[in-house]
Design a protein that fits this description.
mainly alpha; 21 helices
Amino acid sequence: MAPNTQNTPLLDHDIEVAVSESKASSPTSIRSSTTGGWRSASFIIGVGFAERFAFYGVSSNLITFLSGPLGESTATAAVHVNTWSGTAALLPMLGAIVADSYLGRYRTILFSTMLYILGLGLLAFSAMLPSLSGFACEKTSEFTSCYSQLEVIFFYFSLYLVALGQGGNKPCIQAFGADQFNGQDPVESKAKSSFFNWWYFGICSGSLCTRLISSYVQDNFSWVLGFGLPCIVMILGLFVFFSGTRTYRYSIIGNGQSPFRRIGKVFVAAFKNWRANNTSDTFGNMHHQSSEQFKFLNKALLAPDSNLKEDRKQCTVFEVEEAKVVLSLFPIWSTCLVFAIVLAQMPTFFTKQGGTLDRTIRAGLDIPAASLQSFTSLIIICLIPLYDRIFVPIASAFTGKPSGITTLQRIGTGISLSAVSMIVAAFIETKRLESAEEFALLDMPHATIPMSVWWLIPQYLLIGVSDVFTMVGLQEFFYDQVPNELRSVGVALYLSIFGVGDFLSSFLISAIEEATGGEGRVSWFSNNLNRAHLNYFYWLLAGLSIAELGVFTYFAKSYRYRSGGTM
């Protein structure tokens, strides 16, 4: 018997039929239909698991590869890791525009995942090149590289191809998962809020597995196999995603016009009208979400000046509202950047610290330094069920909110915990330096300091706890507070925080390296970590985090949630 195509929207017409039926149905009928809900979301969470396994299988131990086989210095490798991570976090903007304006989320996920798999395959192949080409390892200064210049270029090409594939997959898969729940239905609205918790549970499970498996394989067996495992898992993820095709709910894609183009057009028109009317309002005079909110935009766009009819024709009320929403999110976006800088230290300097300590579990078995990041994933996996099943019901009984606390309260709590993590990291690094001095190892950078690697666990755990609050809160906030047509863009905006944060981390490291290094001076990021001052850097980040929390609290108090969104 032929399947019912209205329930299996595989073609353009079928997708439109399914969406039209959903719009025509009541929330109750949508909830009881054969599409969407937790069944569909479970496929998508499975894909999220595979995608994070693949991404962190590359990124978690990347600094070890760059400062090892590629022969880069510690500071240079950290900058390159942050630059690549930042690019990977900003590319979802491009993926979201393509999805929301042209291809739709489903097709964008399919195409980008194939590109992702290609990049991972080439990355594994690039790790084979030195053995295939017979290139002799060359020692430059104190570093040894086993790659020719052409092979290094091919490696970075493959690495950034992975970032490009991730840029299409990451914003769409999460937004597509949340699309499986109807936010207008009370039951499904609560389920959607819970989805963000379990989505994060799934992707952290993926990162935990890869940090335990891939990092060990890379350190003890082969980089070829270490990069090949993420490729295999991503292929399985594509199969899982395609298996759920007949269960998904779909959305009609946009009209082919970029959301950013629409929003940019509004601000251009606003500026023109402001100049023409010589209004005294400016962007700086707009108090965020107050009773006078967006006075400039409204006045500039809707001013009754006959000379502005053309501009008003070009900007619809819907487009003006889109611009208002994006503008209202900017203070929250900008006040989370330091949190992103803090997170950028985990796969870089945290990992380099761990490499100097005693990592012996038993005779002949050392834990890879990059695997310490698994403790962050582990605490997240443990806390999310407790948060969702215990904290939320208890908090909800007091606040009356289905989610227990508001998303901004959740984000602020995580920011405060990230500041604590940097304070703890600074104290532990000071202890590490004291141990190096005590055992006369200051000038022996490759010697193992007789201090257990477990000293680093508190800073990893605190980062994990802060993630449970801030990361999940940011995901829900940026998905929920944008118009329905911009949901992928909302997720991309959330991801862009960490892209910009990675670039800011790179800039900060380069600036400090320039200021503290040089002839006759030992920089904070010296290749000899026993002479470096990572503790100073952590204190700096702690201070910036505290300042960030104050500014975030100011803007969060005056923010008003979008009508129809969850708090």
